[in-house]
Specification:
Elements (H helix, E strand, L loop, with lengths): L1 E4 L4 H10 L6 E4 L17 E4 L7 H9 L4 E4 L9 H6 L3 E3 L6 H17 L1 H9 L17 E5 L3 H12 L3 E5 L5 H5 L3 E2 L2 H4 L4 E4 L13 H5 L5 E5 L8 H10 L2 E6 L21 H8 L3 E3 L8 H21 L11
Parallel strand pairs: 1-2, 1-3, 3-4, 4-5, 6-7, 6-9, 7-8, 9-10, 10-11, 11-12
Helix pairs in contact: 1-12, 4-6
Bound molecules: nicotinamide-adenine-dinucleotide (NAD).
The site of nicotinamide-adenine-dinucleotide has 30 residues, from α4 and α6.
Length: about 325
């Protein structure tokens, strides 16, 4: 049984090859992103494996089905890039990895907060230049600050625990309040109240309800100078609106691991290329903006879990058309 990987990186090969020993799939790693232009790379494969920026739209689903593909395995949690209706209509089964080391992403959100706040990235470069001045490096204590968490699923819960541990007051907004979180002192409030926190961290999925959740109106509900962290999906934030808010000082700090147009940029070395995306160039020019290129998931533990779960789910679906982990099954 063959699985064709799209958007494959060297680390995908390392981890998937390591955990494929017992299952014995034929693994074919392609660097190309999946789209209508690249779906032609699929041949003689029962399954394909895709990542966050591969585009699985109706036309791609139709072609995959015609080529005999049975299973699409997402080696990630989010599935905003998949047309689930089209997949179902074309008889494709789709699985994802619903919860792999949520701590990996929650800890990266903390890394963004601490770096933006205490400016360790600037201090590191300064000291290497023998500049031991502290001017411009002033931060604030996290202890006692209010943190607003939007989405308290697997990652949001882990993030709430971390921030409680640091002595923060944690306010949360979710469509469903979580009792475990309430028992550790997380307070659920309407969105407007959560947006008034000192630090806001986004941990909800991207869908029709959450697209541009952070827009001119909701930015207006934020405390002047607040910090916004997005490790979830770029489309949650209206890039033009956040740029204006940074220029006016309404938003004081921005830490993002995801970006709305990231599929044209992330996971590649573009250091010798003239980047045509003026919006990210403007964001990169702010001293109070920190951008990482979708690396929050990137830990040993998470990659091991992604590889084992993806291979096991693909195996189960191909062998029995059933999946023991229902949360992993999308269609
Ligand atoms: P999850 O499904 O466990 O939790 C999502 C939570 O969001 C749920 O509690 C859900 O009720 C809530 N939610 C849904 N709609 C909402 C809304 N309109 N407003 C507020 N809350 C809402 O998902 P998770 O595993 O915690 O992952 C969250 C997101 O993180 C994923 O959707 C994915 O996009 C992103 N992610 C990013 C990385 C990365 O490397 N940067 C890695 C993994 C996941």
């Amino acid at each position: 049984m063959k699985i064709i990987f799209f958007s494959a990186q060297a680390y995908d090969k390392t981890f998937f090859n390591r955990y494929n020993d017992t299952l014995g799939f034929e693994l074919d790693f392609q660097e190309a992103q999946l789209s209508e232009q690249t779906v032609g790379l699929v041949n003689n494969a029962e399954a394909i494996c895709v990542f966050v920026n591969d585009q699985i739209n109706a036309a791609v689903c139709k072609q995959l089905s015609e080529k005999g593909v049975k299973v699409i395995a997402l080696r990630c949690a989010g599935f905003n890039n998949v047309d689930l209706e089209a997949a179902k209509a074309n008889g494709l089964r789709i699985c994802r990895v619903p919860a792999y080391s949520p701590e990996a992403v929650a800890e990266h959100a903390l890394a963004l907060i601490l770096t933006l706040n205490r400016k360790t990235h600037k201090a590191y470069n300064r000291v290497r230049e023998q500049n031991f001045s502290l001017n411009g490096l002033l931060g604030f204590n996290l202890h006692g600050k209010t943190v607003g968490v939007i989405g308290t699923g697997n990652i949001g819960k882990s993030f709430c625990r971390i921030m409680k541990g640091l002595g923060c007051r944690v306010l949360a907004f979710d469509v469903i309040a979580n009792k475990d979180m309430e028992s550790i002192g997380v307070e659920y409030h309407p969105l407007a109240e959560v947006l008034a926190a000192d630090i806001i961290s986004l941990h909800c999925p991207l869908n029709n309800q959450t697209k541009h959740l952070i827009n001119p109106e909701t930015i207006g509900m934020m405390k002047k100078g607040a910090m916004l962290i997005n490790t979830s999906r770029g489309g949650l934030v209206d890039t033009k609106a956040i740029t204006e808010a940074l220029k006016s000082g309404q938003v004081g700090y921005l830490g993002i691991d995801v970006y709305e147009q990231e599929e044209h940029l992330f996971f590649r070395d573009l250091s010798g290329v003239i980047i045509q995306d003026d919006e990210i160039q403007r964001l990169m020019s702010f001293p109070n903006v920190l951008i990482t290129a979708h690396q929050a998931f990137f830990t040993e533990e998470a990659l091991s879990q992604i590889a084992t779960n993806t291979l096991n789910s693909t195996y189960e679906l191909l062998k029995s058309n059933k999946l023991s982990n229902q949360a992993a099954l999308l269609v």
